[in-house]
Amino acid sequence: MSDKANRAAGVPRKGEAIDHAWTPLAKQPLPAGRPRTWYISHNRRLKAMRLAIALLDSGSFSPDQATNEKIRETAEVVGVHWPSDATCRMVRRLMSAQR
């Protein structure tokens, strides 16, 4: 078998075609040596992005429709941990961002 077939679905190399867009990317370790607050905010941004995408896919297109309760219900459906109030605010900010 070729190396491409054995490799997990990860970040594609330069010039490589993406033929596996429907599969999640392989997780890669975060860079070492950053302060703890960086890791906390980074993971919060990732969670907020996942929740915002799930809300948009479910039909909630404005931040007014995304209450804390609705965001937390979506988190249960998506399978992420219960979001804090700060994460819920970040989800609403992502949904209201200019496109």
What's the shape?
globular
Intertermini distance: 43 Å
Helix content: 40-55%
The mean pLDDT is 82
Note the run of SSEs as H and E. HHHH
**What is the helix tally?**
4
The biggest beta sheet reads: none
Query: Low-confidence stretches at least 5 residues in length (pLDDT < 50)?
Result: none
Strand tally, please? 0
How big a fraction of the residues is strand?
A: under 5%
Q: In oligomeric terms, what are we looking at?
A: single chain
Radius of gyration: 17 Å
Secondary-structure content class: mainly alpha
Region (Disordered): 1-34
Textual characterization of the structure:
The protein is mostly helical. The protein has a domain at 35-99. It is built from four helices and no strands. The chain has helices at 3-6, 36-58, 68-78, 85-96. The longest helix is centred in the middle third of the chain and has 23 residues, at 36-58. The radius of gyration is 17 Å and the shape is globular. The model has no long low-confidence stretch (mean pLDDT 82).
